[in-house]
Amino acid sequence: MIDFNESSDAVLLIVDDEKSTRDGLRLALEDNFDCYVASDIREAMNILKSEKVDLMLTDLRMGGDNGMDLLDQALTLPHPHAPIAIMMTAYGSVDTAVEAMRRGAWHFVTKPLNLDEVEMLIKRALRGRKQETKIVKLEQENQQLRKDTGKSPHGLERLIGSSPAMAQIHQMITQIAPTKATVLVEGESGTGKELVAGAIHAMSGRPADKMVTVNCAALSPQLLESELFGHEKGAFTGASQKRIGRFEQASGGTIFLDEIGEIDQATQVKLLRVLSEKTIERVGSNTQVKVDVRVVTATNKNLRKMVAKGDFREDLFFRLNVVKIEMPPLRKRSEDIILLANAFLKEFTIENKREEKPLSDEAANLLQNYRWPGNVRELRTAIEHGVVMSNDSLIHPKHLPSFLLKNDSSLENNVITDAETKNSLAKPADFNLSALEKMTIKRALDHSGGNRTTAAELLGISRRTLHRKLKDL
Ligand SMILES: Nc1ncnc2c1ncn2[C@@H]1O[C@H](COP(=O)(O)OP(=O)(O)OP(=O)(O)O)[C@@H](O)[C@H]1O
Ligand SMILES: [Mg+2]
User: What are the two backbone dihedrals, phi and then psi, of residue 167, each rounded to the nearest 5 degrees?
Assistant: First the structure.
């Protein structure tokens, strides 16, 4: 609903019982904003109900009216009528201002007003709202996309494989899905851990749309904590609105904590408490909120080893490891390779509106004998490559990615070599360290079929570090 630049057509409402303040503010702000004024609660509420006001600047003490009552009423208006609120207080009544923020005001300014400060604050508040709107929109788009492409978590039919190892996994999922048992899915990157989590939820009998996924590696410790448990307004700098955490969102359903091996010690403690007491506490609050959530976690690390090294809490490990599903790497179930390849072939043929082309015997052989360090994900990308590149009636080896042709699956050969590094360093003019870094990261990502976890492993850095580097680049 809001999309403003620096100078915008955002709508403001100025509420003050003193005419001189109202007029002064309006004069100062109307060049940049669309301004309404009101002198008491009744007038203010009438405007709020009829106009889409983005931000309300209100006095706290207005004759017989209390700005706090206006705040309460304004914030309970239905979307899009609830505005961001900034309170104006007399110097010295900061306590009241803090109370106002606790009740939902975004910020406060003290009188006498510094007009530049007021304007800056308004712009900052509006920018914050714009960011939030963007994030919500992105999430909605994502959800729609998942619905459209039918890639929302399905049951077992999505988890292709007829090897004894996969048959056992199917059976295990069927058995434990309807229970409340906490499940830990371990396995190398690209082995289908997320699909397993989806299948568990799909077969759990819990509402289909109540699965919430959190990638624990993608967020800084502080963000992760507030993402999981939510926060109260003002709990920390930047917490301008109260936020419901993922655990609360998932209540009644399943929460899938991906890359659980990446969470920091402090969050481990909090998570342990959630699992043992089945309640959460929002950051900045002491109130316990009951949640009924099935917890599924996944990692490509060996958690037991992490426990032994003191990197992961043992008590938490036991809570998470009630049922363990270990995804076998693709090289250990080669019976599944051709089955999977043919399924992906069909998928990408349809997606790219191509004619159906089978794999040549040589191509099938190549697939069968490769080591697949990136597991099923890597196979999937290889088949996509084949479908797109083939201009023949079959998919031949030459249509597959070149690393298969060299049949060279040793990881070392797929990242930059010493010789290459030396070579690059010998070129002072057009070379710099970040270019080398960029190239190395690109290669690792190409090799992993875009999978960041595998790429990070290849590079010997944590996924979070890779994330940061990608952002910088
Ligand atoms: N058994 C399978 N049948 C069909 N597709 C599969 C299977 N296993 C994995 N895939 C596909 O491979 C890709 C990777 O799977 P997924 O994301 O579940 O792996 P992961 O183990 O979670 O990997 P990571 O550790 O990198 O997060 C996805 O596109 C998924 O659909
Ligand atoms: Mg995953």
Answer: -60, -40
